[in-house]
Write a structure and sequence with these properties.
- 2 copies of one chain form a homodimer.
- The first copy, chain A, is an alpha/beta fold.
- Chain A folds into 3 domains: 11-54, 434 Repressor (Amino-terminal Domain); 68-165 and 300-330, Rossmann fold, CATH 3.40.50.2300; 167-297, Response regulator (Rossmann fold), CATH 3.40.50.2300.
- Chain A has 12 helices and 12 strands.
- The first copy, chain A, has helices spanning 11-18, 22-30, 37-50, 56-63, 80-92, 108-119, 135-143, 167-180, 197-212, 229-242, 254-266, 300-315, and strands at 68-73, 98-103, 125-129, 148-153, 161-165, 186-191, 219-223, 248-251, 276-278, 295-297, 325-328, 331-333.
- In chain A, α6 (108-119) packs parallel to α7 (135-143).
- At the A-B interface, α4, α5, β2, α6 and α7 of A face α4, α5, β2, α6 and α7 of B.
- Chain A binds a DNA duplex (16 and 16 nucleotides) through α2 and α4.
DNA sequence: TTGAAAGCGCTAACAT
DNA sequence: ATGTTAGCGCTTTCAA
């Protein structure tokens, strides 16, 4: 092999190799404009033979169009967000838009950094989890001049559009179901909440509804760190050793709920007779446990699909640029741990 | 508020607002070159006040430097890849490089599309799962002129660098442990493998080692679709109803293994006396089951860290551009389902 | 320490 | 159907 200069190929190289002007080469490669079948063939042949890879940086600069949608979420370890992403991808597939993922680790400062990084690539839209953010993040989004869809949560003010569920309402619905099933000594187990606003709102909706029925949370147990079965076991043991008379445990996610379920079954508790359980999220993965944990589907995939659709709709010329607000209704799945039959 | 033209801000705007030349504004914003403290202040003030967000597209085109590293993986639903990603992020944090994720869904054609999309942004490096790919993908990577690290697997030819474990060896190690524990009627449960080369290699290493000991796999059960507890239950029921005399079940991942464990406990099997179990991956999440499933740690986080480090090292001027090949050693974790005591 | 000029590789807009 | 021209917004290079 000779040693060709290790310079990335440009349109000009394809142009010279095919004997067609750069402009026409560009048209062929983008499939835009009228090009004769003959030239098209020549160009595609040459591009393929050379192994030409277009330079989107130059293309984006020239056209001021970037086919990227920024998707900003707190974490990938959570099982929740991958499902939202798959809804987004599914909807974007077939369009020319591509999702690009940024992770904030639930840290507002990191959100700012990620957002600045993302916006500096001039994406066509932003999909971002949650409604609570720093002033800097807020003004960056407000000033970006592109569609912004805030997802997962509808309890608050959206900058532009939003798609999600009301977590206060989710907490309320769960509380109502628990009360109706006749439970009265209710414990709560969840994350330390300063950063997790959605868990906090569920907790608020939950306690408020209990309060209206004249019931106070009997005990609560918080933890930091990722969700895992073992955490659920430990927390359940802790809360029950403190408050052995609890008859219901509400977990802020399914993973710790499942851990609690394992623990209680080990210890021979009668579920849901002696004690009832509920989690949150509707994690499919966990079907297959000895009992189906009561949970609430957070409509994750649908949220992703609808958010992506909003971005797509905004691209339509002359389309109504009015913000779209969509509140989905979470569905309670009583499973085997909530309804005493 | 007045209605400022809804045009994205440019360096020129900051330049005019601060009375400093564009060039010097650029220097301040990038922190390069000597700028007097006074001008620096003026510029930063103006940029902040206007809410200027740099345009990386223009910057990248002018400098032919892009601070992006493409990370291409099959899936996010797997729990395996998020951990690799977190290793990559952790190592890249503090450098100026940023990971960008692409998903292939285990489809070679999608890998080609994602790869072309990624390379067209001229990233500084590529980290990509697996060693098996289409010829088109292969030649794109070979011709990209940037560091390429293939991860997760070391059984095969790397284009440039690679970091991973030998899945054949992982299968062998597991087989050896099972034989040593005295099991003889061994069943395998896993994914349909045409696309999942790593699972296939584990299976090959596993059966070959059994074969050397004069033992054949007694039965096998394959499935398509994501890993989930319920799948593991169903598959376990299916294989045992066909082959009730099996004394060991080797699962190709921990999730279906855990489902099998649940099923067997339900049915009152004596584990690991009557029947032993092992999975693969070392998924932390599942600690907290009634028994700890035997598994093998695939070094996911370390793979991510080392891969990112290879990319970083290549950036050093005049650094040795020789390909790096790293084979990590998976660790068998016998848990409670492999060793009969 | 600061500024002016020249392009990075492509595409919009306008010829032809 | 194809070609020409003039930038996109920034950074490199060179000059002051």
């Amino acid at each position: 092999m000779s040693t060709p200069p290790k310079r990335p190929l440009t349109l000009r190289d394809v142009s010279e190799a095919s004997g067609v002007s750069e402009m026409t080469v560009s048209r062929v490669l983008r499939g835009k404009g009228d090009v004769s079948e003959a030239t098209r063939k020549k160009v595609q042949e040459a591009a393929r033979a050379l192994g030409y890879v277009p330079n989107r940086i130059a293309g984006a600069l020239a056209s001021s169009h970037v086919n990227l949608v920024s998707v900003i979420i707190p974490s990938l370890g959570n099982m929740v967000f991958p499902e939202v992403l798959s809804g987004i991808s599914a909807t974007l597939d077939g369009s020319d838009l591509q999702p690009v993922i940024g992770i904030t680790d639930y840290q507002p400062e990191k959100e700012e950094k990620v957002l600045l990084e993302m916006l500096s690539w001039r994406p066509s839209g932003v999909i971002i989890a949650g409604l609570e953010r720093s002033e800097a993040s807020h003004s960056m989004l407000a000033a970006a001049g592109i569609p912004v869809v805030e997802i997962m949560d509808t309890d608050g003010e959206a900058i532009d559009s939003c798609v999600g569920i009301s977590h206060r309402r989710a907490g309320r619905m769960t509380a109502e179901a628990i009360l109706e099933a006749g439970y009265r000594k209710i414990g709560f187990l969840g994350t330390k909440m300063p950063q997790d606003h959605r868990a906090r709102k569920r907790f608020e909706g939950f306690t408020r509804t209990l309060g209206k029925a004249g019931i106070e949370i009997a005990d609560r147990e918080f933890y930091a760190g990722g969700s895992a079965l073992m955490k659920g076991r430990e927390m359940t043991e802790a809360i029950l050793s403190r408050s052995p008379d609890l008859d219901f445990l509400y977990y802020s996610n399914d993973m710790i709920g499942a851990g609690g379920l394992m623990y209680l079954l080990d210890k021979g508790y009668d579920i849901p007779g002696q004690i009832g359980l509920a989690g949150f999220n509707g994690v499919e993965l966990l079907g297959g446990l000895p009992r189906r944990l009561a949970t609430m589907d957070a409509c994750r995939r649908e949220i992703g699909e609808k958010a992506a659709q909003i971005i797509l709709d905004r691209k339509v010329e002359g389309a109504d640029p009015a913000p779209v607000h969509i509140e989905l209704t979470p569905k309670l799945q009583p499973g085997d741990t909530l309804l005493r039959t």
